Every structure is written in C-alpha cells, then in structure tokens.
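Archive entry. Fields below.
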Amino acid sequence: MAMLTTCVVVLFGLSLGVGPAEVNWRDSFAALVDDSYGPLTLVMREIRLPRALLAAVIGAGLGLAGAALQGYLRNPLAEPGLIGVSAAAALGAVVALNTGLAAAMLFGLPLAALAGALVAVFLVLLLAGPQGGSLTLILAGIAISAMASALTSLVLNLSPNPFAASEIVFWMMGSLADRSLVHLAIALPFVGGGAVILLRLGRGLDALTLGEDAAQTMGINLSRLRLLLVLGTASIVGGATAVAGAIGFIGLVVPHILRPFVGGQPSRLLWASALGGAVMLQLADLAVRLILPDRDLKLGVVTALVGAPLFLHLIYKTRRGQV
Amino acid sequence: MSATSPSEQPAHTPPAENLSIQNLSVSLRGRDVFRDVSFDIQPGEFVGLLGPNGAGKTTLMRAALGLIAAKGNSSLAALTAADRAHAVAWMPQAREIAWPIAVERLVALGRLPHLPQGARLTPQDQAKVDQAIDQMGLQPMRHRAASRLSGGEQARVLIARALAQDTPLLMADEPAAGLDPAHQIATMEIFARLAQEGRSAFVSLHDLGLAARHCTRLILMGDHGVLADGPPDTVLTPDLMAQAFGISVWHQQTAQGPVFQPLEVL
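PREDICTED_STRUCTURE:
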C-alpha cells in the first residue's frame, strides 16, 4: 500500500515534468505555483496539471471499478471495458454531443455517459448473472460492446460533423491529450462519487467469496449490494469515459496483478486496485508521450496492448481452473 | 433485540426454540416440493435431516432460512438479514471459495456479522477464529490459500467458518460429504458438543450410520413432506427405511453404541 502510494506521487511528478515544451524540472514546478513564469505557468496549469490529475483520477476509478465487479461476479475476467460498460458510456457521450445535450446542460455529457454505463452494467448482470460462468459473462460483454460500438459509429456516421472519423477513434480508444481543468471538474464528481459507493462494499464482497447463500446468511443484503455496485461502477465509468473516451483493461490488469499481494481478499483489493489503477494509467499516459511524442498515440491502444495478452493468459488459466 | 449479543452468552436463549417452522410449503415450477412441514428445534438438539435425493432437504433448509420464497412461517425467515446472521450460521452444499484467501482469513469471515463496518477483529473475535480452526484440525494449513486445498479440506474450512460465526443454531447442508472417516466423525462430534453446550445443530445427511450414532433427533423427508420425526431409534426403523429409501437395514444397540448399516435395495 505504502509503496503504491509512493508510486502514485512519483508518477504524478513525472507526469507534470514531461511534455513537448523543453523546460527543466525546477522551472516546471516553480511555474506551477508561481505566476511569474508567463507562458510556462500556463502550460503547467492548463495542460500538464489537468492531464496528470485526470490520469490519476480515472486510473484509480477504473482500477476500483474492475476490482468491485470482479468481486461481485466472483470472476477475474470481469472488467468495465471488457464487458461493454465503457463502450456503452462512450455511446452515451457521443449521443449527448451530437444531439446538443452536452451543450444544453452543464453535466449533460457525463450524465449521458453514465446512463449508457448504467444500461450496460444492468444488462451484463441480467445476462451473466452473479453465478454466471466466465463464458456467459464474456459473451454478454462481447454482445454489448459490439452493439454499443456499432451504434456509436452509426451516430457519428450520420452526423454532419466533418471530423466524425477522428471522433470515432477518440471515443473508441480513449485519450487524455489536451484535456483542461474543466474536464477534470466534469469527471471528478462522478468518479469520486462512484468510488465512495464502491469502497463501502468491501464487506459484502468479502462475504460473497463464500457464495450468495452464505453471504446472505452472514447479514449481507444482496439486492442492495447489487444496486450500489451498478450505480458505483456506472458512475465511475460514465464520468471517466465522458472526458477520456473508452479506456480498457485497467480494471482487468490491476486487480489481477495486485490480488496475490492482498491475500486475495476482495475488500483489501478495492483500495489497492484504486492506487494501482492510478499508477498504471499514469504509466500508460507517460508511455504515450515518451514513445511516440509527435504521433498522438492513443492511451486506450497502450492499455489494450498491455491488457489483451494478459486477458488471453487469464482465459487460458480459467479454462484449466487455476485462477 | 436484547442488549446481550448471542456471541457472548450462547446458552442464554430467551425464546424457547432456535428454529420454529409452521406449515411451510414450497412449490418450484408448479410442482410441490413439500407441503405443510412444521417442527421446532430446541436448544440442545442435534437434528439430522434425512431423505432420498430430490426429497427437498436443501429446499427445506433454504426455505427455513428465508433464502427462497415459501408459504407458511419460519422464525428465521422473519428476521432481518442482520439479525438472522446472529441467530444462525449456514453452510450451503455448494462449497464455494471464489478467491485464494488464506484459511485463517476465510474462517475469520464468520466474524463479519459481529463487526461494525470497517472494524478489525478484536482479540475475542480472534479467539473464536482460532478455536474454530483448532476444532476442525486446520492448524497445519491455516496460512495456505483455501481455494487450493482438496475438496474435503475445503469443506472443513467452511465448517470452521460457520463455527466462527458463533450462533445459537448452526445449519449445514451435507457437511460430512467428501470428508474422510476420521473427519466425518470429528465433525459430527463437534455438532453434538454444540448441542450439549445448549445450542443446536440442524444438518442434512446421507450417511445413516453417522446419523444413528450422533444425532439426538432425526427428521425423515419423503412423499412431499415429513415421514417421521423423533429420536433416531424411532426413525431408523426397517419399515420407514424401506418406505423412504427402498432399502433393508441392520440396526443394533451394541456395547459401542448404536450401529446402523444399510444392507440391500428392496
């Protein structure tokens, strides 16, 4: 835990210090707090600070949502991106942008994304069910992802927007480039609110380790747990997707890596995955900026490149019953 | 609720019975599983629930707990989830351990209903956990991941978890299935000791020999209801065994206690 926290802070510093404007570290950090640096202050406060903050907040949210979903479904393959929740949130966001809803009301964009995420989480729970095996879960996820992506493409396809193609790329792949503090203000209440809900579910998720019947007789109200889980996950993914597009695999990779370190206990995995998610997304965002700084590498591409092989490995292990 | 929690004074049980069922009926998909089942379980009783496959043993126990919808009354189903967790511990037949949690942490989950949100185990809680681990002979494997143990070992871990919940009534669905003979007997003796301490145990069983030797009372299910309910001698009769299971039996009082052996299919 302490190590993870340190990592978050160090990476946050790194993230602030890295960018296309070639300035030394001392000046960068001085500019952050001191107005006298002119344009550098602007760069630090308006470009790098929001980006670093968003990476930490969204990463933490996605890691947490993944850990909570896995705990509830008792399935290490559950993940908001993989089971279509992120794609549905992206669909909500795209619809909001294209119908003018986003411009019409303050929280129009994140609320629409949240609605999309809600529908998707609900559908997954309905289709895969809490005792549903890995296969039903993944099939449900594929179906919902495919549907949401197709509808997103359709909306953009039909829109008069000349940049539709690049918009599709943004919403499908996710990115933190050129975000401002306004974006942070949009995402933070939703991610934070969802996190508060999910972090309180640890006890119920622990009890669920023993199955639904045992959990219920240990005093856990399952329908309340399910409702809170759906709301919390949707709120986090909705808020995150509204500003950063669909970023996959954080919620899959992070809990998987950290599970052995917390002794497998779902409640302890929640906090660890939040910190771990922040670390991983900051790392990915740094990689995006350092590897190909002038080619606008998408964040979701990097997380998928890391996550997809691990996903295959997990499926292989699940099939052999070793997870 | 009284101010004293059941964990501190297990023998002190103001309501007379630990479980009271009246006219309980369950039908699934239009088919009656059982009708009008009524019985009470008093402190000090170790009740074995017998019956052929499909007689509705699991359904009866789940309905008594309020886990499935049923007509009629059950004292446990009437409680809130939180109160019920102080009244009964339940070990389901499906031995589910989803994550590789260490045995001692898994047994400690049994203390969850006694802890406020986010609180850590108190020394008293830890003592209950250690006692349950000792009782089930899990000391040598207490740091191993429970999900990687053998089936019988997992069953013992789950029984320990239910023991750690430390409730006036313990209900278990086929806890002895898959255990080696030594642990079967040890498990039955633990349930019998709970009963001697003034609590009660309600356990479904397929091993009639174990039921004959250890239970204080047996309930035999069949024909959509209770066929017989009473001390083992009155239930394990050749007639009832033939009617419920279609088997002939050998049942004798010996110097080593009652011995019961199923013989042939009739």
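CURATOR_NOTE: The two ends of chain B are 52 Å apart (CA to CA).
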